[in-house]
Amino acid sequence: MSSDPIHISRKKAVYPIGEPLRRYLQRYNREADLPITYGQLRDFQESIPLTDKDGKDTFWETAIYPAYAMDAIHAGLKKIYALLKAGGDLKVQQHLFIERIDYCTFGNTNPFRIRIVNRYNEVYDYFYVKVADASRIYGLELEDLLSPNIINFLTSKDTLIEEHIAGIPGDVFARNYLHRPEFNPKRIAKDFVKFNERCLIRILGDMRAYNYVFVITPDFDDYQFRIRPVDFDQQFYEGEVKVYQPQFFKENYPFVELALRHFNPQVMAQYQQEERAMIAQRMRSERVRLMDLRHALRQDTPAPPEKVEALKHSLARHYEDASFETCQTTADILERSLWRLISKR
């Protein structure tokens, strides 16, 4: 763990979807003809600050639209939900209604969060409408292909639709759940070690505690924990390797300290190897799709050239692997990072 500050771009550029990536998304049924776009949702008249149950500002605002536009907006959002969650079966719309459309006032892309409710049992769900950022889409796709987590999203022109990833935000977990007596701290620390390794290998950055959630699953004699990222904006965008290692963010120090307290280096190495083996197995089972994604990425530029150059040097130093120095593109860097898992086995 280092006290050196980590520098992350305050305002990350948004990269539009290029034709190679668009063809990939169409081939794998990620592209859809959506009835509502991000730009249309931006046409709200006014908004009301949204507070949490304790009255604190959430940095979200509830958008208010003209009365004449509400029916069309709500109908379109229900259709999007059917496409996202029910394979396009529009019959599910009949018992759903849009309760709230929230607009995020911070971050790079100012997403909308849609709260949709089942009128029969009042069970609610969320989904998000965002600006389609190519680097984020690569991050979502790599998470789906290489992690234990399934990611569901759709794109259409300059709009991205994401399902809600349920869980306890990492900062809330550290504050309110970490030291609960019924939770085994070693299991929490184990998943953080594996999560840290997975982020580095697939080059997903900025995993501060509020950018991932804990999913808690009761087992027959204990609880299992899984950490899931919810923010994919920093997919191979920055040039410093520490950005891709959650252990170096001060917000994650409670989990780092937990791992250091309970594990020696040999145990940590075991968990890291387990994660590498899992990713290698997923690479084999998804090799065709990964090749197609790599082909799209090779024709794309989802990061500034100077940061691509810095990242390859930083990874070469980290791994003591000069082959990173020969990388010319983001695709080369990702391929080298993944190939190391296979070539050393």
What does this structure look like?
With 345 residues, the chain is an alpha+beta fold. It folds into 2 domains: 19-163, no CATH class; 168-343. It has 11 helices and 10 strands. Strand 6 (153-156) and strand 7 form a beta hairpin. The chain starts with 18 loop residues before the first helix and ends with a helix.
Strand order of the largest sheet: 1-2-3-4-5-7-6
End-to-end CA span: 28 Å
SSE order: HHEEHEEEHEEEHHEEHHHHH
Strand content: 15-25%
Question: How much is the average pLDDT?
Answer: 93
Helix content: 40-55%
**Poorly predicted tracts of residues:** none
Q: How many structural domains in the coordinates?
A: 2
In total, the number of strands is 10
